């Protein structure tokens, strides 16, 4: 009979293998010469706040950062990018940090594909994004990293 501890460790190990293989697939996909029309993959490392923080705005009840991210930020982001060719490539829960600085923790990884780098910049610097989506991102996340990938062969 397999112990619960061993089964849990095995499941974590298998999940890590899947994540590493996905990362390698992403890297192979984006390893092409960069041009103005080459798709880019934005890798976002997310750490949610325990409770979303809008700076004590009246009327906002306690919600987790994760709830705000998916219920408000993602909804606004989808509305803003509806006419664009922006797609969710991958969303996954971080199982463990491997070769990361001590104390660095992330909750989820999101990989989003944009048609090109200028589309990413245009969208994330637009007044619409800055007023409709970014406040929810700031309220939801304790920390995040945005990594633009693509263009190497």
TrEMBL record:
The chain crosses the membrane at residues 12-31. It comes from the Bacteria. InterPro entries: Dimeric_a/b-barrel. Keywords: Membrane, Transmembrane, Transmembrane helix. This is Uncharacterized protein. The lineage of its organism: Bacteria, Pseudomonadati, Bacteroidota, Chitinophagia, Chitinophagales.
């Amino acid at each position: 009979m397999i112990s619960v501890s061993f089964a849990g460790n095995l499941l974590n190990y298998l999940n890590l293998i899947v994540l590493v293989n996905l990362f390698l697939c992403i890297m192979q996909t984006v390893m092409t010469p960069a041009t103005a029309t080459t798709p880019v993959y934005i890798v976002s490392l997310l750490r949610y706040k325990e409770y979303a923080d809008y700076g004590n705005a009246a009327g906002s009840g306690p919600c987790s950062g994760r709830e705000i991210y998916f219920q408000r930020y993602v909804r606004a982001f989808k509305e803003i990018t509806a006419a664009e060719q922006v797609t969710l490539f991958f969303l996954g829960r971080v199982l463990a940090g491997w070769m990361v600085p001590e104390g660095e923790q992330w909750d989820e990884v999101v990989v989003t594909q944009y048609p090109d780098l200028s589309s990413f910049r245009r969208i994330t610097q637009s007044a619409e994004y800055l007023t409709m989506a970014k406040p929810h991102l700031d309220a939801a996340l304790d920390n995040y990293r945005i990594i633009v990938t693509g263009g190497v062969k």
